């Protein structure tokens, strides 16, 4: 392929700056920093003959509600009015209390109704950054949909795959990959392959009953890894979607060799059987050996190998950025992955 890979990113995505999170009672530096996106931008700009960095054209408020509950969108909009120096951490989660009165998305203190963890803070810039992040995924889907490029990359930050229809969490506010899938499924079957270290619970739940969008997830075993409550192999879809959700939990320390075996023996045959018109890759690099959050052991050289196997399928591909928390190596790993599509794509 001699054409540049289109990369979508909007500078306002850097305005969201989570400072810390609560993890097991400890206040720790937040892993989802602006340095992550800066590291990726630097790596892709350095290889400027291969990538074209473009801003998404419009603010996507309207179609956010195609994927998410309007009240979740309203709650994040309410946070826009927080004082600029204030970060709101939900700490009351009344979701399961049936006696609790109805959630009010106008009241920031009700944020816990719309959230499932204590690691995903809100501030006045969160809504804008998350909406532009979602716009990147939509634009990346659009160029592939229009046949302008066989592969595109959405530099989404904040990430998206933990966000469900009704809830934010796991550093995610809007489900970027799901937004891209909503656009493409109007044209044909879509398969979302989630290779972030963590199970994409949001993506799974959004398409659990949908046979038009198959979801395959490879991740750390949820009996010991975040998000703990979903990602088990027994979750296979429901209703019309039964058989179209595949979870592949793997043990700690999984290296590139074991990972590639899973790709070759389980993932590629499942994609070939489903025959999607489009492939969306929820690409997290927290599978990297020295990632501070994940506990797999992939090396930089493994990422182009994964990409190469996907490129050989000859299906148009949208790559959506998810996690990856060692900022110094993140850009290199993303570039290595995208380079794998350049070599092998037609
Ligand atoms: C998109 C994504 O990858 N979200 C991951 C959310 C994981 N949140 C739980 C992390 C638990 C805190 N452990 C941090 C250890 C830092 N040394
Ligand atoms: Zn992750």
Can you walk me through this structure?
- This protein is an alpha/beta fold.
- It has helices at residues 34-46, 61-67, 70-78, 126-145, 176-184, 201-206, 256-274, 302-311, 327-344, and strands at residues 5-8, 20-23, 26-29, 51-54, 151-154, 190-194, 213-220, 245-250, 278-283, 317-321.
- The chain contains nine helices and ten strands.
- An eight-stranded parallel sheet has the order 4-1-5-10-9-6-7-8, sandwiched between helices. A two-stranded antiparallel sheet has the order 2-3.
- 50% of the residues are buried.
- The model has no long low-confidence stretch (mean pLDDT 95).
- Zinc ion binds at residues 196-198, 284, 286, 322-323.
Q: Could you give the count of β-strands? A: 10
Q: Tell me about the biggest sheet?
A: 8 strands, parallel
Helix content: 25-40%
Structural class: alpha/beta
Distance between the termini: 6 Å
Bound molecules: N-[3-({4-[(3-aminopropyl)amino]butyl}amino)propyl]acetamide, zinc ion
Mean pLDDT: 95
Percent of sequence in beta strands: 5-15%
Low confidence ranges: none
Q: What Rg do the Cα atoms give?
A: 19 Å
Outline type? globular
User: How many helices in DSSP terms?
Assistant: 9
With strands numbered from the N-terminus, the spatial order across the biggest sheet is 4-1-5-10-9-6-7-8
Order of helices and strands: EEEHEHHHEHEHEEHEHEH
